[in-house]
Design brief:
The complex is a heterodimer. Chain A is of the alpha/beta class. Helices cover 42% and strands 14% of the residues of chain A. In chain A, helix 10 crosses helix 13 (425-478) and helix 13 (425-478) packs parallel to helix 15. Chain B has 2 domains: 30-184, no CATH class; 187-340, no CATH class. Classes of the chains: A alpha/beta, B mainly alpha. The structure holds iron/sulfur cluster (2 copies). Chain A: [4Fe-4S] cluster 1 binds at residues 370, 373, 376, 419.
Chain lengths: 564, 359
């Protein structure tokens, strides 16, 4: 398969060889973990343990709140020592006892069970913003998916977590991909990888040829998918979702749309590995592969790290030299953020920690004026006009910014990278976007209040319906209806039943629609909270419950009357 | 948050073993950019000096010095710190470009006035580097051309390295009566003023130009071309503006020439005389005042080329690069608005309906 081109892009210093020379290792078990309640897109999870509770590895400690959220599990066995608003702290007992779920066979189990498993294991996307995987797995409900793409581009410098995962677990990752492909109904899987990872490519090829042999076997079954491997040229930001899809499939994801709109679903290898482990081994998401790198540590490499491990401990174990250290960056040097304190835990989305010296990632020199050289424009993978965006962002002309498609910017930083005047363009865009979002939320406040009110109404109505159902049930046991009114009553009930059924169907559709809207909004804007949409979904769910109750109640009454 | 920068690639490429990047498609920082443009003027300046004498160098030196002085003065008045702005070399570049455009051995006061107009008025009154809508060097040049036409048309014919009256000329003490004697027509001048009735063939037959003038101008143009190609090769400028400008000039010139070879000069003549090459590579490409998008640049260059040809052929001035560049600078905001590229994933039809308005 030929590779296609996305516009723009840059070639970077990769600096991947610092961390990809040594095999994957296990980081020592931490003595204490701090697990933030929000390690994913959407609402923080709600704690379901109390201080002094004993937990094992994989015990559920916080439940997801609303649809866009994720469960959280203990990553070490021991005792809960603190439950705060934002995190749960556990002290280890050093035994590392597991509490796993029963294994499932993904080839035979039905979809609902598998999706439920992904949900209960707290699985989220490990490559980016931590989007709950179970929502993505349900995509087939409202979109037709033909292709699952596995994004192993890993285009940012330094990061090698996916590279190592692919070298060590190529078969598992591809099996995970097949699970997801089965859930979303994809006909083909395309794995894309940059040509700077020859070992991972070799491992994948071996794994794929093994699969082919199994697939050729006549006993192999109905859900066979076509798997292709595509090696792409190394060019930043080929791992950006849209750029990646363009490069692999030559498809453009529409602006403001999702890959699902063109029949594509995108997953990262780490997530697929975790998915397989959740299904096959019943292991909740409690550890991940993290790249530890940078010139300020002496033992760089990739490690399996338990979630909640303190970054400082981790780096010290990898030989951190404090006097060398200039800053620690979470993520890659292009899109990552510097840490303000090392006393931060590893989270589900922490893929890389760079302990950089000053020489290696120096502070940006003072910015000078834009000379309109156009360098930024020629590297922008989205074909925006970074220079004009910069101008209008500083002038705070938000309308013009939106017309110049500010929200199509993927914040890849290619423009800042080449700007000869050292203008921190991406920072400008980020703050402009934030400013515009806040404004939008302000204008939506009235709506939100209205939706909350509707939710209260719906809840009251549902409670009423339930109360009435209970009363009816009690009354039904005591008193038989009088014979005289029976005929007319049952006719009326017939009509009533029919309209109740219609109402229930409508309520179901409303729930599905609200789910779809929310899933979409969250996928597009994973860093935002979507309270308003969650409220609307909850309202629809209340309505559905009320409709269900009324219908069951009417049916019960009907049954009573027909069999006196 | 973009902790890497392209400049690291150049800085470290010599010692970093891990450097696997073979292609390097980034631009060096602003100051270096300006310095490269200055370096690229050297071949042109050298050849000009060879033909027109040391007066070329005196122009450039004086203009460069004045420009630095004017920049410092403007910064002082605007209460900005001197160092960063002075060290970005942009004022020096303006000076060099203006100096190279003036007739050799121009008097110091002429240069001074031009520089004041360029640096103080055209650049700093508009807010300094990056904010000026007009090309500063060309503002200075245009002002001088309309205010002091006698001095601005004083192109001496190719002459000895150190002409006799050099110091008097630069010092501005040369009596006005002597000025005319110095002057020799440039090829463009001569052709312009040949008169309607004279056919091109007859004109050339009269040997209207001083010995060697045509070949001198052609060689100067070639030297500028060399510098310009260097800039493109070093990715300091993109090819869009020079190529579109020269192509549109050549096309129009061919059209005119084909329509009536006896009245119009050949395309080769147009490309190798006057400020065509110099303007295409060094003036029109000033990023600050040119269009930004690639398509915008193509229109910008083509517009300059076409207008230059029209003014050279039908207008009152023999050459028109300065005026035309300023004119096209005026169109840049418009060009920028109408050439907004369609971002990846945006529907195609949208571009026609939804234009960005700058209000
Ligand atoms: S790269 Fe920097 S200086 Fe050049 S146009 Fe873009 S913002 Fe301006
Ligand atoms: S950060 Fe945004 S504007 Fe800059 S290159 Fe990337 S997508 Fe384009």
């Amino acid at each position: 398969m030929p590779a296609y081109e996305f516009p723009g892009g840059i070639t970077l210093l990769e600096r991947k060889d610092r961390s990809n020379q040594s095999p994957l290792r296990n980081a020592p078990l931490p003595a204490q973990v701090t697990l933030p309640l929000k390690q994913h897109t959407g609402n923080p999870a709600i704690p379901c343990v109390a201080t002094d509770d004993a937990v094992q590895v994989g015990s559920l400690i916080a439940k997801r709140d609303g649809m866009v959220s994720a469960n959280l599990h203990a990553s070490i066995s021991g005792t809960v020592t603190q439950v705060s608003d934002s995190a749960i702290t556990i002290d280890a007992d050093g035994l590392d006892r597991w509490q796993a779920l029963p294994p499932l066979d993904w080839r035979t189990e039905n979809h609902a069970v598998l999706i439920d498993r992904l949900d209960s294991c707290g699985l989220v996307g490990l490559g980016g913003a931590g989007f709950p995987s179970y929502i993505k797995a349900q995509i087939a409900d409202h979109h037709r998916i033909d292709t699952l793409v596995v994004n192993a581009a890993e285009c940012e410098p330094y990061i090698t977590a996916d590279d190592l995962a692919l070298r060590h677990y190529p078969t598992d990752i591809m099996e995970g991909a097949q699970i997801v492909a089965r859930l979303c109904g994809a006909q083909q899987i395309v794995v894309g990888i940059e040509d700077n990872k020859p070992d991972a490519i070799r491992a994948l090829k071996v794994a794929l040829s093994d699969f082919e042999q199994i697939n050729d076997h006549p006993t192999s079954d109905q859900h066979r998918v076509n798997i292709t491997l595509k090696v792409i040229e190394t060019r930043y930001p080929s791992g950006g979702e849209r750029q990646f899809i363009k490069k692999l499939l030559n498809l453009d994801v529409p602006s403001g749309g999702l890959p699902a709109d063109i029949g594509v679903l995108c997953h990262n290898p780490g997530t697929l590995l975790a998915a397989l482990r959740a299904v096959r081994d019943g292991k909740p998401l409690v550890e991940r592969i993290v790249t530890l790198t940078g010139d300020a540590i002496s033992a760089p490499g990739n490690y399996w790290v338990r979630l909640g491990t303190s970054i400082e401990t981790l780096l010290l174990q990898a030989g951190l030299e404090n006097q060398q250290l200039y800053h620690v960056i979470v993520g890659g040097p292009m899109m990552g953020v510097p840490l303000s304190t090392l006393d931060t835990p590893v989270m589900k989305t922490t893929n890389c920690l760079i302990a950089a010296t000053r020489e290696e990632l120096p502070p940006a020199p003072a910015e000078s004026s834009c000379i309109r050289c156009g360098a930024c424009e020629s590297v922008c993978p989205v074909q925006l006009l970074p220079q004009q965006l910069h101008w209008y962002a500083r002038a705070e002309s938000d309308d013009t910014l939106e017309k110049l498609h500010l929200f199509d910017c993927i914040e890849c930083g290619a423009c800042s990278f080449v700007c000869p005047s050292y203008i921190p363009l991406v920072q400008d865009y980020r703050s402009a976007k934030q400013r515009i979002r806040v404004k939008r939320i302000e204008t939506a406040k009235a709506d939100h209040a209205k939706h909350r009110f509707e939710f209260r109404q719906a809840r009251l109505a549902r409670e009423d319906a339930e109360k009435q159902a209970r009363r009816q049930a009690r009354r039904g046991q005591i008193r038989q209806p009088s014979d005289s009114s029976k005929a007319s009553d049952s006719a009326a009930l017939q009509v009533d039943l029919r309209s109740l059924r219609i109402a229930q169907t409508a309520a179901k559709a409303a729930v599905r629609k609200a789910e779809k809207t929310l899933a979409r909004a969250a996928a597009q804007d994973p860093n935002q909270r979507h309270d308003d949409l969650e409220t609307q979904l909850a309202t629809a769910q209340e309505n559905l419950k009320a409709a269900d109750t009324r219908l069951t109640e009417a049916r019960a009454t009907m049954a009573q009357q027909e069999s006196p | 948050m973009s902790m890497m920068h392209a400049s690291q690639l150049t800085a470290k490429s010599t010692n970093a073993k891990s450097l696997t990047a073979k292609t390097f498609n980034a631009t060096p920082p602003t100051a270096q950019l300006m310095r490269w443009v200055i370096i690229a003027t050297l071949p042109g300046l050298a050849v000009m000096t060879f033909y027109f004498g040391i007066g070329v160098i005196s122009n450039v030196l004086l203009a460069g010095l004045f420009a630095l002085g004017a920049e410092a003065l403007a910064l002082k008045l605007r209460q900005r710190s001197l160092r960063p702005a002075l060290s970005d070399s942009s004022a020096l570049l303006t000076g060099v470009l203006l100096g190279a455009s003036l007739p050799p051995a121009s008097p110091w006061w002429l240069i001074g006035i031009g520089i004041l107009a360029a640096v103080v008025v055209a650049k700093h009154l508009y807010g300094g580097l990056g904010q000026n809508p007009f090309n500063p060097a060309m503002v200075g040049y245009a002002l001088l051309l309309v205010s002091f036409p006698t001095y601005m048309t004083l192109w001496s014919p190719p002459q000895s390295f150190i002409p006799e009256n050099l110091w008097a000329q630069i010092g501005g003490t040369l009596p006005a009566s002597m000025l005319d004697a110095l002057s020799g027509a440039t090829p463009l001048d001569a052709f312009k003023h040949k008169g309607e009735a004279v056919l091109a063939r007859e004109f050339w037959a009269t040997q209207p130009l001083p010995e060697g003038a045509l070949s001198a101008w052609r060689n100067v143009a070639l030297a500028w071309l060399a510098g310009g190609l260097l800039l493109i090769a070093k990715r300091i400028i993109s090819w869009h503006i020079p190529v579109s400008m020269l192509v549109s000039m050549a096309l129009l010139a061919t059209l005119f020439y084909a329509s009536s070879p006896s009245h119009f000069a050949s395309p080769f003549f147009h490309l190798t005389t006057g400020a065509a090459i110099f303007g295409a590579f060094f003036i029109a490409t000033d990023p600050v005042s040119a269009a930004t998008s690639r398509r915008g640049k193509l229109f910008f260059g083509a517009g300059i080329g076409a207008l230059v040809m029209i003014i050279r052929t039908f207008g009152g001035y023999p050459d028109a690069v300065a005026f035309v560049v300023l004119l096209m600078n005026l169109c840049v905001p418009l060009l920028d608005i109408y050439t907004v590229p369609r971002p990846t994933g945006q529907p195609k039809a949208q571009q026609q309906t939804e234009q960005v308005d700058r209000s």
